[in-house]
Amino acid sequence: MRKQFISILFGGIFVGAVALSALVAVRSVHAGSPASPASSGELKGTVKVKGTVPKPMHIDMSQDPKCGSGGATEEILADGSGSLANVVVYVSAGLPADAKYDPPKDPVVLEQKGCTYRPHVVALRTNQELKVLNSDSTTHNIHPSPNNNRELNQSQPPGVPFSTTFAREEISIPVKCNIHPWMRSYFAVFKHPFFAVTGKDGTFDIGNLPAGSYTITAWQEKLGTSVQKITVGESETKTLDFVFKAE
Amino acid sequence: MKCFSKTSLIRKTSRIAPVFLAIFVCSLGFGQTPAGQTASGQTVAGQAPGESKIGDLTGHASSGKALFRRYCISCHGVHGDGRGESAPHLDPKPRDFTRATFKCRSTPSGSLPTDTDLFETITRGIFNSNMPSWRPLTRQQRADLIAFVKTFSARFQEEKPGAPISIPPETPTSAESVQRGAQLFQDMNCWSCHGKEGRGNGPSAATLTDSKNNPIQPFDFTTGTHVKCGEGGSAMFRDLMTGLDGTPMPSFSDALKPDQAWDLVHFIEALPAADKKGIVLTKAEPKAE
Predict the structure, then answer these.
(1) What are the percentages of helix, strand and coil residues in chain B, rounded to 5?
(2) With CB atoms counted within 10 Å of each terminal CB, which end of chain B scores lower, N or C?
(3) pTM of the model
(4) Cβ contact (<8 Å) for B254 and A63?
(5) Third-level CATH fold of B175-277
(6) Which of A163, A179, A182 would you mutate first to test chain B, the one with the most B CBs within 10 A?
(7) Where in the sequence of chain B do the CATH 1.10.760.10 domains occur?
């Protein structure tokens, strides 16, 4: 009897400790806040490709005359100097594990125009609204195929906007329109704000980055990933360039 | 429920004073989380892990496991990932339960099916596939199987099934309704996959894949109205509104009003006998605008 009492007593202490640590854990999730812009650093750079890049091919869209005169493939989009567009550059490691960043209130917009996705690669935050517009006079179906988020497949007639969110980080989710099988986009979903998509000149700019040592990853849909490590000091602007090799 | 999962954890670690501890912990205030809610605020299915609820029937995963090993693993695999011994020979491929993506649902695209949806699927089987009807098993056995199938994905613990879509009373079938449906079949680009005559031979048909990149064929409506997830008008109405997740078939819940969906169903129902009834399939070729 006495033994049982002692075991209950210890059990109680143990449980108390568990309850306390659980409370602390919950609190610390909310404690992490975005860096104050005053002391934060910045990461800039250019993404290039070396080697022969396949030229964009004409897309025959004649199966649906409402699509217009056709388009061009965008799998690898490089200019004359090899500057690569549509590359997602992001912090893949080095951020505090308990940091939590609230999603922005403004939606990210994806437009379907001329039976093509604009932009071709969409980067957004977890639980941030993704607003999908159909500016064509034909019906599309927006069909992301994630591995770590829920699959979604919604028919979208002309002019009816559609919104959705993604709950978990995933880089990247292929997106199709099955009605127009040439249409292809990618969604990159981040739980933090430290990412950028390169423009036509291949440049990217990740601002408000707290001082620290980071792993930076560049992702391109056909060329894969390239990884580098970098340390950014307080109020420091660092330059980091990536070079992909085309076959 | 939250309360019990925590106590079982503690029980494993401390290995002491089992029952008293459970009561003690609950009274400590762990029970403050509202029933059916996780710490992150997401609502869970309102049932214990490892259980299914079909009407007044409660299924248990512990019993379903043995049934699954006996009847299901040859196709769905021991890990429920759809990679059983027979899987390479099957088309379409067996469902991968670890993804919790299901074709036959009463719930919106992207949301989990209800337990009853899953129960009806194994009861009915999936037409045009290798999934047979499991009606020979008792209702209790089928409920147990559902409880076990749900253990393959954590989503069933984290999320609640979507609210089932409502199926309003069917509008009268008439030549006008069929004609309106024919126009919708064109405007909604159904023909891109299903073909202008509904034969499953549209211009995009050859490009279609399921969510695992296996080729998949659109339904040939001239073969009848026995579609994958059931038979008849209300089954097709539901499939139009929910979409068949994991396949290229989208949800039209935002695109069609209920009356329009019924018009489309009436047109599709008329397709097998279109020639005999003299139905004009499409009024005009799609025009460039």
Answers:
(1) 45, 5, 50
(2) C
(3) 0.79
(4) no
(5) Cytochrome Bc1 Complex; Chain D, domain 2 (1.10.760)
(6) A179
(7) 51-158, 175-277
